[in-house]
Amino acid sequence: MERIMELGLLILLGLPPVVGTGHWCEHTVEERVEWVLSPRLQLEVSCSEVYQYNTQGWRLDVDRLRTKHGGDEGIALYYKQQGQKASCFLYKPPEMQSEVVNKTVRTCCEGWGGPHCSQGVGVRGQCYSTWNCEEFPGVHNSSLMPMEQCCSTLWGLSWRNASDQTCLTCTYTLLPDSQSSPLVRSGLLGTARVSQGSATCMSWGGVHYRTFDRKHFHFQGSCMYLLASSTDGTWAVYISTVCDQRGDCSKALRMMLGLDLVSIHHRNLTLNALPVPNGEPLFQNGVSVHWLGDFVFVESGVGVRMKFDMVNTIYVTVTSEHLGTTRGLCGLFNNNPDDDFTTMAGAVSPYAASFGNSWKVPDQHIEECSDAAELGHSCDATGEPTLRRQAESVCNQLLENPFTHCHREVDPVIYIDTCQYLYCSLPPKERQDAVCDTLASYTRECAQRHIILMWRTATLCGRVCPRGQVFSDCVSSCPPSCTSPQPPGPAAAMGQCREECVGGCECPLGLYLHQGLCLKREDCPCFHRRRSYQPGNSIQMRCNTWAGQWECTGEKCSGQCTLMGALQVTTLDKKRYGLPGGNCPFIVVEDFVDRKLTVGVRCGECTAGHWGGVAEMGCLKEMSVTAQHTTVTITDTGTVTLNGQRETLPVVTGDLVLRKVSSSFIFIQTFGAQLLWYLDGSYALISLQPGFANKVRGLCGTLTWSQHDDFTTPEGDVENNVLSFAEKFSIEPCTLPGGAPPDPCSTYTQRRTYAETVCAIMHSPVFQVCHDVVDREPYFRLCLSEVCGCDPQRACHCTVLTAYARHCAQEGVTVHWRNQTFCPVQCTGGQVYQECGLACGGSCSDLRHGWNCNDFTSETGQGMCVPGCQCPSGLVQDQQGQCVPTSLCPCMEGDKAYPAGAVVQNSCNTCVCEQGVFNCSQEHCEEVQQCPHSLVYSPRSCLLTCSSLDPLGHQHVSRVSQSSCREPLSGCVCPQGTVLLDDRCVLPDECPCHHNGQLYYTNDTITKDCNTCVCKERHWHCTQTICAGVCVATGDPHYVTFDGRCYSFLGDCQYVLARENSGLFSVTAENVPCGSTGVTCTKSVTLSLGNTVIHLLRGKAVTVNGMPVILPKSYSGSGLTLERVGIFVALSSRLGITLLWDGGMRVYVRLAPHLRGQVGGLCGNFDGDTENDFTTRQGIVESTPDLFGNSWKVSPSCPDVENQDLRDPCALNPHRMTWARKRCAVLTQELFSRCHTEVSFQQYYDWCVFDACG
C-alpha cells in the first residue's frame, strides 16, 4: 500500500519513478549549447570615421576609452585637446551559434535528499509577509508550501522550513519574470523618475479613501487590506476594521517598516510587540513615534510617515523616491490618477469595489469577512428621499461661511459627496462623527494651503477640553511650554508650528503647558539635568548660583586641564586633542605675564605593557612645577625632587606645598593653582583660578574661555596643527612622529571586543547617576584607545575610569564602581578607599603644619575630590602609614625616604644620606668634545638657539645673554653675540617666526580668520578684529558651534540651530531617521526673517512664504538674496546672517560680528566662550549634548534623546567598522596631507567612521 502511495505521489508531481534503493527521479531539461564562429575583434580608428564603421557592425569601445583617459571627464578633455586628431577604440562582438538540446538528468525525487536520496527532507514550510519569519498579516501562515511557491507570490518575503525551522529570506531571483505587471518586487519600472515632492494618501469615515495621486473613492470592505506598500516589500501598511463589545468600530493598522513591526489596535500601539504608552514619544531602531493633538505619528528611515487619530482618520505620506513603486488601496504613486485602480493582478479596474477586494490580505485573526459590492451612491441605494435631504442639509454647510474662504484653493464638491455618502451609509449613531471627520479633513486640506478656518461651534462638532485647555483644529506643534517658553523664531516661523494641522487641545494664549496644565509664566518650574525646581529655588553650579528663572551670578570659574594616557589633553577651555608625546618634555602651563607659574611634563615609554607602535605615543613620566624660584619634579614612580635634590614628602616652601593626600595621588598647591598627579596610571589634573585668565599658554591652552586661541604659541600666532603647536612648547629639541596617529583599536583589532566590554561600565547602571552630570563620551573613547593599546596584564581602563569617577565626584555625584575583581585597590594601615577624599587634614604632617580644609576648598564650596585610600574620619596617618588617633601623632622633623647612610650617585658626584639630607661632593664634571661647524667649546655656558632667545616663562629679550640659561653646562655653543638656527650660527635679528611648521621672516604676514599677523623681531603681531562666526551641522548629525565646540546629537525632530534673542531671525533644521541604527539626518532647513519664511527641503525647490522660487532671487525690502553657489543653496540677509545648504547633510550658518553674544540654539551663543555653548533655551548650562539639544527642539511632542552614547553605529554594526575605517582613511593620507597642517583631521575622521557605520 505504501509503495502504491509513493508511485501516486511521483505521478502527481510529473516525475517518472526510478527503480533502486534511493528515491531517484529522472527528468528532461533544455540546455543551450554555444560555440564561437569568429572571435571578438578590436580596432583603433580616427573618431571622425566611427559612423562608417558602425554601419559595418563595429561598436564604440567605451570601457577601453574610459580606462585609457581616466573616465568620462578624461574622454571629454581628450576630445577637446585633440580635435580632428582624436582616435577611438572600436570592437566587433564575437559571432556565436547556439543550439538547444534536451538533456536527461537524474536527481532526488521531491521530498528526498542525501547522497543516496534516501533521507526524507521537509521541503514544505510556512510563508510569511515579513523579512524575518515573524507573524504578521499577509500570506495565510497556517498553510504549508514549497519555498519557490512562497517566494513567487507578491506577499512572500520569508519562508520557514517545517522540518528544521530554518528561516530563509526570499531573494529576487525566485520571483517570476513578469514584464507586464508593474507590481514586480524590484520596484524599478524602467522609466526615469522625475524629482517630485511627497504624496499623501488618506482615509476617513471608515469607508472613504484618497490615493497618493488624489483620486477619491468609497470602499466598504470589512476584511484586512493592504493600504499601501512598496513593490519591493521594504514597507507595508495594512488596514482593517475592529469593533468592541458595544459595537463601536474603528480602524486598526499594522505597519512593517523594514524589520520593525508597528501595530495600532483598539487605541493601543505596539512597536515590535512592546507596548508604547499613549502620549509618550519614542525613537527606536530608526522608527520614530510621537503624539500631537488627537493624532499619533509614526515615521521611519525608509521614507514613509503615517499619522492616525486612533479612530478612522489616517494619512500615509511617502517621499519622492517612492515614485512609481507603491501599491495597495493608496494606488500607484506616479502623478497619474487614471491607473490608481490597479489591482493586485496588474489590471486597471473600472470599479472601486473590485479594486479594493483585490488587495484583501488573508489573516487568521479575522475569521469571517466579506468582499465589498459595487452598490453605487449610498443615498441612492437606500431609496429614502428623506435621508438624502437630511444628508444634503447637513453636508451643504461646506458651501457656507467660514468654508467659503477656502473654495478657491480646495474644491468642496468631492467632500460634500463624501459627507453625504457617509451620512446615508452609516447607522444613525455614527453619522455625526463621520460628518465631523469630513469637515475636519476639508479644513486640514485648507490648512496645507495656509488657510486656517475656525469652524467648530457648540452645536457643530463642538469639542470640550480638560484642565483649562481649548480645542483647535490646527493645534500647534511647538506650543509655549514651561520647558520651551520662548517661541522658536519670528512671527512667520510660528505659522509653521500649525502646518501639520491636526485637531487637539492646547493652552489659551499667554499660558504655558506643563504636565497637562496651563500655567502662568511665573508659576512655571525650572529644569536642570532632568529635574524640576520650583520658582525661588536656587542651585550651585561650580562658582555660580542659579536662581529664579535660571538667572546666573555670572562669575568666571576656574579652568581645569587634564593630561591622560598616550597624552590626550583637555585644555583649560575644554578643547580636546591627542598628541604623540614621544620622549619629549613639554611646557603645559606657562604664566608669561607675571611669571609666577610654569608646569612642564615629560613623556616617555610606558613602564610596562604598552605594545609596539602605541608605546611610541608615550605615557606621562614626570611633571615639574616651577613657582617663582622653586621647582619640584614628580615621577611616575612617586619620586620627588626639589630644585634638583631628592626630597621626601611633604615638601613645604614659601612658594608651594607638595603632599601625598591619598594612596593614589600627590597634591601640589601654589599661587592660585592646584595640581593632582596620579601614581597608579598616566593621569594629571591642573586647576587654575580665573586670575590666570589671558596670562597663560602651553599645551593646556590659554584660559580665555574660548577654544579658538588655545593653540597660541610663544611667538603670538595661533597654530592649527597639533604637532606644529606642540613643538613650540617642547623644552628640548625634539622631533615628534608625523602623520596620522595610530588607532590602537584598528592596530590590535582582536582587543576591541575586550575594550568595549570593560569600558561599557560607563554606560551601565553603575554610573547612571552621573550620566546627566558629566559627558561620558570623551572618557569612553579614551578608554577604548587606552585598553586597545595596552597589555592585558595592565588594567589601563582603571585609570580612565578613575578620572571619570573623580569628575563625577567633583560635581557632587559619588559613584562606587570598584569591587574585589574590577580595578581593586588594597588599602593598608587601617585606611579605607574613598571616591571623594579630602586633600587636607589626613596625616600627622598636615596637623603639624597647621593645614586645614579651608586652605584647599574649590569654587564649589567643597574640597577638591581626591580618590584613594585615606584614614577613616577621626583618624590620621602617621609616618609609617598607620591610621592613628590624632593624640598619637609623633613629633618628627622631616620624613626619611632613605635610611641613613644610603648612597646615591649624581653625575660624577656622590651623595650620602646624612641626618635626613643628602651631602654631595662638589666635583666639577667636564667633558671635552669636538664641536661641529662654527660652534666653539665653552665650559659652563649654554647653547643659545633662536627658540631659546625668549625662554618659556620669560619676557622677550632683545640681546643675547649667556646668563639667560637656567643650568649652565659644558659643551658646544655659538660664538658670543650669535645663536643657532638649524646648523649655523646667525645674528638674533635673522631668526624667523614659525607657523604650521614653516619659517617666516621679518615683515612676512599670515592670515588667521579675519586677522592679519606680521612677523617682527621673531614674534607675531596680530590685529584683534572680532571675526564672523560659522556654525556647521553635518552628517548624522554632528555640530561645530560658532565658538568651536564639537559634538554629536542624534535628535529626531525639528531644532533651532540659531535664533536671535529678540526674535529678529531664526534658523531651524528638521532631522529625520536615516538607516536603522538610530542615527538621524537633516531633511529640511528653514530661515525665518521677520514675516518671511524661506524653506529648503531635500529634493524640492526653494520656497519663500510657501511659494516656489527660481534662483537667483533677491528681495530689496528684506535685503534677502538667494542664489546657487556650486552645490550649495546660499541665503544671505543684510541682518548679518548667511545660510549655506548642500541639499543633503551639510548646513553652514554664518553670523556677522555685530551679532556676537546675541543668539542661542544648537549652534551655541557666539560669545567667544566655548564652555557655555551648551546653554539651554531656559538659559542654564547643561553638561551633555542630549540634555542641551532636547531643550532646543521646536515641538515638545518629539521624543527626547536619551542614552545617545549607546547608539554608536559602529558598536551596533561592528561588521561595518573595517570598511568604514578603510573608506575614511583617505582623510589621513597623502591626498589631504597639504591640509593637515591647517586643519586637524581627527574629528572629521571620527565623524566619517561614525556616519559610514550608520
From TrEMBL:
VWFD domain sequence ranges: 199-370, 559-737, 1029-1199
SMART domains: C8 (SM00832), VWC (SM00214), VWD (SM00216)
Signal peptide positions on this chain: 1-20
Entries under Pfam families matching the protein: C8, TIL, VWD
Subcellular location: Secreted
InterPro entries from the UniProt entry: Mucin_vWF_Thrombospondin_sf, Ser_inhib-like_sf, TIL_dom, VWF/SSPO/ZAN-like_Cys-rich_dom, VWF_dom, VWF_type-D
UniProt entry keywords in alphabetical sequence: Disulfide bond, Glycoprotein, Repeat, Secreted, Signal
Record-given protein name: VWFD domain-containing protein
